[in-house]
Amino acid sequence: ANLESIGRELQGLEDQKVSISNEYTEEEKEILELQQQFTQQDKSINKLENELLRLEETIEDHTKRLAVIKNQIESKTERLDGHQNELDELVQSISESSEKETKLVSELNRLKQDYASVEEKIHTIETEKYEMIQRIKHLDLEKNLLEKQIREFSGYTRPVKSLFQRKETDIGFRNMIDVVANLLEVNREYEKAFEVLLMGKSQNIVTLDTQTAKYAVEVLKTNGWGRATFLPIDVLEFKPVVQNPKLLKEPGVIGYAAELVVVDKDFSKLPLYLFKDTLLVETLDDGLRLKKQYNMKNQIVSLDGQFIASSGAITGGSLDLEPSTSLLVRNRKVHEMQEELDALNRSLQKIEKEEKANLKQKHELSSLRTVMESELNDLMLKNSSIRRTVEEINHAIAELSKEIGELHKLRIDYEAKIAGADARKGMVINEIVSGKASLTSLESTLESFGQILKEKKQAMQQLQERLNEVKLEFNSGKERQKQYRAEISDIETRTSENAEKRDEYKHQLLALGGEIETLKEKTKQMDVELDSVKKEMSGLFESMKYQQEERGQKMKKMEELEIQLATLKEERENAREKIHKQELVAQEVEHGYSRLYEKMTQAGLSIELEDSAEESKEKIRLSEEEEESKATQLTDLEQKIKYLGAVDLQAIDEYRDVDARFTDLDGQKKDLEDAKTSLNEVLDKTDKEAKEIFLKTFDAINKNFDEMIQTLFGGGSGELRLMPGADILETGVEISVKRPGKKHQKLYLLSGGEKSLVGIALVFSMLRINPSPFYILDEVDAALDDYNAERLKNLIEKNKDMAQFIVITHNKLMMEGADILYGITQSMGISMAMAVELEKYAVS
Length: 844
What we know:
Layout: H1 2-151, H2 158-167, E1 176-179, H3 180-183, E2 185-186, H4 191-198, E3 205-207, H5 210-223, E4 230-232, H6 245-248, E5 253-256, E6 261-262, H7 269-275, E7 279-281, H8 284-294, E8 300-302, E9 307-308, E10 314-315, H9 327-476, H10 482-538, H11 542-608, H12 615-620, H13 624-644, H14 651-713, E11 717-722, E12 733-738, E13 744-746, H15 752-769, E14 774-778, H16 786-799, E15 804-808, H17 812-816, E16 820-827, E17 830-837
Helix pairs in contact: 1-9, 11-13, 11-14, 14-15
């Protein structure tokens, strides 16, 4: 209770102390604020006094500078007047020589216009000549293609093609002329109509006599080439056409088909045979109208290929004639191309003559232009010298004017600065006077607050003395609590230490987590590198893996045979055990039967002797115990016989079969074990040789790879390294490249174009060791710029004697290096390949 009263008194004193302390603190804060204001005011006055000194120095300095500027303005104005007089004299001289220069320039411009006109003509001629040459090349290419189709009988049926191929070597075909389509000449606008009329007849073969046709049929039949239709001229028959003059005058009627074709007089029968009285009209409507109006039995065909049969049936639709499919169009196309080529060649000769005349005129104009330009250059050099002098004077005048202007600006600026400094000086003096008055007032206020604060401080000291006495008394009553507080403090200390250790462990855990993430990232990068290298080298070891797989299959087969052999052994042992048991039972039964037989024999003997002598009965008579024992044995034997059942007479044969099978399988096992040993020796020898060949080849490829990197990158080096710690035939390969002026870098750090170059270098490195017959490079230059594409082109040209390169590309630079260029074009939904031998047109 005393401790509680002391505590309450202590609490009251503490509260009183806090109250006085708060009041003291507030008043102390006010004094501090007043002191800060006093200090700031004092600093402001010092700052203003320093500014006043600087303003006085600035005004003095600006006044001196202003005097110097005025002197410079006067001096530069005098120099400006001298330059102006000199400039007037030079301007007069330039005016005189400029008139002469203008005349020369006018004449030279007229000459240049003439020269440009001639050049334009030459350019136009060259353009026209180039287009003409390109057209000639294109026509020549198409014409050669069509002629090749004609020579190779492209589009012909197999029988027709086979016969004409044999015609060159077989004298029996000397009177075989040609197919129908090649003997007819048809107007271009009638081609569709006649293509419809001919259909399969276009490949009918025309012969001079029936003997040739018969011989051809025999050849087709003998060789199994198929069937063909022959038109022997000597026996060809036809009905003459009965013309209707009125019909020919009808609108839309063109004429009879047989009269609209041109044919050699020796084959004049052909048109009438082929087309008979077929009528050619402009449109299908015209044909239908005539059919109804005249009740015609003739066949009718329109210009666009619509066909009306004599029965009235109509066949029609769209019809596209291509030189590759239509024999009529093909022959006409070749003829037209040849005519166009002849016309183009004549035009080309005319253009070349015109080009020579213009080149001669260009040379004459160029010579005259050179003379005039020389004269003009001399005059221009003189004028240029004067102009340079004028420019220099103008530049000097401009500079002087600029300097004078800037000096005037400086003068005005300094005058304004002096005026501003004077004004600021007056303001600063006023602020200093006002600040000193305010400073005196603050000093008086601080003195009054200091006295009040001193009194409160004395009261706080008295209160503190009483508070200390009460605290001493209060503390003596709390001695018993020290032990508990010490324990609590110790617990809190240990808790704090544990918390610090926990924080330390957390920091270590976070650091380890960061290291783990870093190691995971490095591991991922290394996995990516390893996967990349494994994929690149998988092809090199495919053959070795195949051998290992084959060895594994044989081992598996051997294990299966061993299991089968063990099963058969077990079956054999079971059979032997079964036979042994049966033999034992048989022996026991046989022994029982033997004893029973002896007993019965003895009984029989006793019966036989029974009539002869009574003494014998006594000899063979058994005791009761012996009889019971024998009866028991007999019963047991009978039970065993019943238990065994019937005797298995096939057991011996089964044993022999199993034994023979075991012997055979045992031999097979021995053979397989020998084969396994031999195979392991072969595999070990193969692995050893493969490693030697691989290392030898790898070293050669590595050397070539370094050379290829230097060629493609213009320097640097490249290296292939085997990954350590694994079988040499299964390990990965690491690619390291050092570009010129760079450090060694892994493959995944290179750009797309650089990766392409590295891949190309690796392919060509292996090419030098064991080249393939050909290589297909599918857009390997897609990521390369023109500079590196040119290097790749040169590399392919350098190695083209070792292998053939088929390059798929969109790059013009790569196309320029090709011997044969194949272009893929599409016509009517069909893709076609067109080849151009660039060497053939290299000169053009």
